[in-house]
Description:
The structure holds 2 protein chains of 2 kinds. Chain A is α/β, with parallel strands linked by helices. Chain A folds into 2 domains: 6-91 and 167-252, Rossmann fold; 95-153, no CATH class. Chain A has 10 helices and 10 strands. The relative contact order of chain A is 0.17. In chain B, helix 1 (2-33) runs parallel beside helix 5 (161-183), helix 3 (76-104) runs antiparallel to helix 8 and helix 10 packs across helix 11. Chain A binds chain B through residues 52-54, 73-75, 78-79, 83-84, 86, 90, 92-95, 99, 102-104, 106-107, 111, 113, 116, 127, 130, 166-167, 169-170, and chain B through 184-186, 188-189, 191-192, 195-196, 198-207.
Amino acid sequence: MSQPLLEVRELSRRFGGLLAVDRVSFAVQPGEIFGLIGPNGAGKTTLFNLISGVTPPSSGAVLWRGEPITGQPPHRLNRLGLARTFQNLRLFEGLSVLENVLVALQRRPRSSAAGGLLNSAGHRRAERQRLQAAWQLLEELGLTALAERQAGTLAYGDRRRLEMARALATGPSLLLLDEPAAGLNPAEKDQLCQLIGGLRQRHQLTVIIIEHHVPLLMRLCDRMAVLDFGVRIALGTPEEVRRDPQVIEAYLGTGGHAS
Amino acid sequence: MIETLLQTLLNGAASGGVYALVALGYTLVFSVLGVINFAQGALFSVGGYLTFLLMGGRIGVNGALPGWGLPGGLPFWLALLLAAAGSGLVGLLVERVAFAPLRRRNAEPLLALITSLGAGVVLVNLLQLLMGAEGYAFPHGSDALGGLPDALVIAGARIRTIQLLLLLISAAAVLALSLWLERSRGGRALRAVAEDATTAQLLGIHSEAMVRLAFFLSGALAGLGGGLIGVSVSLPGPYFGIGYGLKGLAVLVLGGLGSVPGAIAGGLLMGLAEALVPSEASGWRDALAFAILFVVLLLRPRGLLGRRTVEKV
């Protein structure tokens, strides 16, 4: 097996008396789409917070291409190539759609603050490149027509895609998607599935995705892990996970999960 | 009659411009941290004294080093610019001692009101220790203004050049800041941090650095205001900035907390209203200013241009 892009080792997080994440381990290979499922309160979003540096873990380690990155601040992790979206959408609502993406392109390509003050040729070129990259992402996610709209005024599905465009703008190699299909209708869920597959191809992405809609996840993921009360109870291909007796008991029930 | 009115309006707009500078300083810090920096008035004083020293002013008899002064004297423009930058650095220091430690410990944000007030008091007292409590007057006349005449005659009205400069410089600073916030990469990042610092950080923006930038700019705006008022009126003592700090706070609330256009509109309204108080009743100026604030808040609790605050669930 090649070097994993991201590895989580015995990661735990305690909130007061509650062990939200309990010694969870798994490794994600480059190029993989990796699913995380589990009932509400199983610790999935907490796990994302630990990986992306929003919350420090109580114990355990996160490794990036084999190097420990535990406890680094989010902006450092983002510069390494880690980006995420939120379950309950956190757009910059007062900024336009285009600006939301531009903010995330801040560091690509590099240009100095002094260049900005002097409005140097290099700085102008960098700003042009950023604009170009932003428009390209908006087009890829079907948001071109909404570019000048204030993000707070967008419809739900558009907001979800804008959040993905913004995360992609930071040039990640690993994208963490927190319930990207929540609130979408079946047709939109299908489109999202294709979109995520396409994005992986075009941006050479590795994806970790939290999702409640099990059929979508089964179709999309190469491998998945199941969390229950903070504990990883299963890990494997969708087929393996589907047959796992512990999973059937804890989460899927007998006839699968309706969402 | 017309001349007097013109002069009055110009004076009002000029002090309104300075109020807007102070209010914008509050706005910058408020929008990224959600708290008021009560050291803003002290930074205003710092800017005034720095401008005085940089223009070649000497420390008076009650100061720490009576008779001492910087060698040579810089022209007004350069002194003002450097004093603003210096006040910005002092603003960074205020952030470091009064805000950063509380943030690191996740303390209640309101505590920063007290720590920043404390930092402001210390600053004013340091100024008093260094410069003494006496007032200082700037040298007036052409050499202070780099060859410009002391007064201009426009449309039959005699206008003090410095009042016009005051208005132009504060307008330029306000305009530059608004453009920077609206158009530039850094301004965009600052607005993103103001909306949601954690998310901005997850997108690779160094939120802490943007907070420091906000404090630097905020201190520089206050310092610029202090320098301008010092040159145009005088430095009546180390506490002189506190009054402007309070007035700026009133303007901030008047315009709407966190709103840049609101701070500008509020500043102009306040300055013009004060200028229209006849000089025989000048003791009533502050009363009028705060009465306006009172009435506006009764009618529009969000301030003139404040946005309705949306409670996030």
